[in-house]
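Is this the right way to post C-alpha cells for a design question? Let me know if I should format differently. Anyway, here goes:
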C-alpha cells in the first residue's frame, strides 16, 4: 500500500475544488420495489406486489452523480430525448446540482430506461427500453462544439461508454485530441463491444472480462495472487499497444483492482467490501473517484486505492447508490 495513503484525507478534501465533465450514454434507472408472497398460477414466476418506485440518473449520468457527491463542479455531456423519461432524467440531474448545459435534447431520440424490479432486497428482473444507434453527423458536430465550449473550465474528463451509440470513433478521436491539446486528464470506462480506439488517455478502466475481449484474447480463470495472473498481465500489455494509454486500471471484482503502468511494476489493491448487496454502479463509482483522485494530484496508485475503497462501500448498498466524502474518509482511515 503506498505510504501516501496517509494523505487520503487531503486528497479527498481536494476533490471539492475540481470540475469534472462526464461524457457518455445517459440513462434513467427506474426501481420498482415490492414484496413477493406467492408464485403466479400463470407461470413459475413470483408475483410482486408493488410498494414503491424510485428513479435515479443512470449510465454516464450516474458517474456524474458519483462525482457530484464530492464536488459542486460536476457536469455531464450526452443526449436525451424530449420524452417524459428524458425530461425526468434532466430534472433529476438539475435537482442534484449537475450541470446539463452540454446535454443535447432531440425529439427523435428515445431515452434509455433500465427498470429493475426488486423484492426482499433481491433483483427479480431487469427490463431495458432502449434504441441503439450512432449519432448523426449533425449531432456529432454539435457534441464537438459543446466540448469546445466546456474544455477550458474543467480539470478532467471521464468518458463512460455503455455502447448505446453516443460515442462514435469521430467523437472519440475529437475528445482525445481536444483533451491532449488542453493538457486535461482523460479517463475512459470502455464498453467491450464498441471497439473504439482511445489514444493518449490518462487512464482506461476495463473490468477483467472487458480487458480480455478488447485485447482479442480468450478470457481465463482468475489467478491468486492477482499479480501472478499471467494471462491478465499479458492482456494488459496488449492493451497498451491498442489503446496507447498511460495507465490501465483493471477492476477484478472480489480480487480488487490492478493498476498497470508501462514504467512501473504492476500494483494490486485487494477488495475492500465487507458485505456485497448490489454490484450495479460499482464501476461508475470507481471511475469517478479514481479520476477525482488524479485531478486532486494523487499518484495513480493512491487514486486507485481511493477508488477501490469507494467501490467497497457502494456494493454494500442496494440500488444505484453513491458514496459520500465522509464515508470515503472513514473507509480510508480504517485501512
Amino acid at each position: 500500500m503506498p505510504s501516501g495513503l496517509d494523505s487520503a484525507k487531503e486528497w479527498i478534501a481536494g476533490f471539492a475544488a475540481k470540475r469534472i465533465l462526464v461524457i457518455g450514454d445517459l440513462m434513467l434507472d427506474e426501481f420498482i420495489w415490492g414484496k413477493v408472497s406467492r408464485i403466479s398460477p400463470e407461470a413459475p414466476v413470483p408475483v410482486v406486489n408493488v410498494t414503491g418506485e424510485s428513479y435515479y440518473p443512470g449510465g454516464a449520468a450516474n458517474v456524474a452523480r458519483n462525482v457530484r457527491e464530492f464536488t459542486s463542479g460536476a457536469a455531464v455531456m450526452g443526449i436525451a430525448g424530449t420524452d417524459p423519461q428524458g425530461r425526468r432524467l434532466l430534472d433529476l440531474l438539475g435537482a442534484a446540482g449537475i450541470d446539463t448545459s452540454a446535454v443535447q435534447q432531440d425529439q427523435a431520440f428515445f431515452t434509455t430506461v433500465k427498470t429493475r424490479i426488486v423484492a426482499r432486497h433481491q433483483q427479480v428482473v431487469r427490463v431495458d427500453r432502449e434504441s441503439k444507434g450512432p449519432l448523426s453527423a449533425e449531432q456529432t458536430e454539435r457534441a464537438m462544439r459543446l466540448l469546445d465550449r466546456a474544455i477550458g473550465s474543467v480539470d478532467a474528463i471521464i468518458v463512460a461508454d455503455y455502447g448505446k451509440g453516443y460515442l462514435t470513433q469521430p467523437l472519440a478521436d475529437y475528445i482525445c485530441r481536444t483533451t491532449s491539446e488542453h493538457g486535461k486528464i482523460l479517463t475512459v470506462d470502455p464498453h467491450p463491444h464498441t471497439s473504439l480506439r482511445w489514444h493518449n488517455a490518462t487512464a482506461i478502466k476495463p473490468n477483467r472480462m472487458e480487458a480480455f475481449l478488447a485485447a482479442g484474447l480468450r478470457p481465463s480463470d482468475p489467478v491468486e495472487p492477482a499479480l501472478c495472473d499471467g494471462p491478465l498481465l499479458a492482456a494488459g500489455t496488449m492493451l497498451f499497444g491498442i489503446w496507447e494509454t498511460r495507465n490501465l486500471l483493471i477492476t477484478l471484482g472480489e480480487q480488487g483492482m490492478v493498476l498497470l503502468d508501462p514504467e512501473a511494476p504492476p500494483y494490486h489493491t485487494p477488495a475492500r467490501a465487507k458485505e456485497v448487496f448490489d454490484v450495479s454502479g460499482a464501476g461508475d463509482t470507481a471511475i469517478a473517484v479514481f479520476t477525482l483522485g488524479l485531478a486532486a494530484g494523487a499518484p495513480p496508485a493512491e487514486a486507485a486505492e481511493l477508488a477501490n475503497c469507494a467501490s467497497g462501500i457502494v456494493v454494500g448498498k442496494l440500488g444505484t447508490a453513491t458514496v459520500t466524502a465522509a464515508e470515503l474518509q472513514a473507509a480510508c482511515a480504517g485501512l
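Format looks fine. Someone answered above. Worth noting: The radius of gyration is 20 Å. The longest helix spans residues 300-314.
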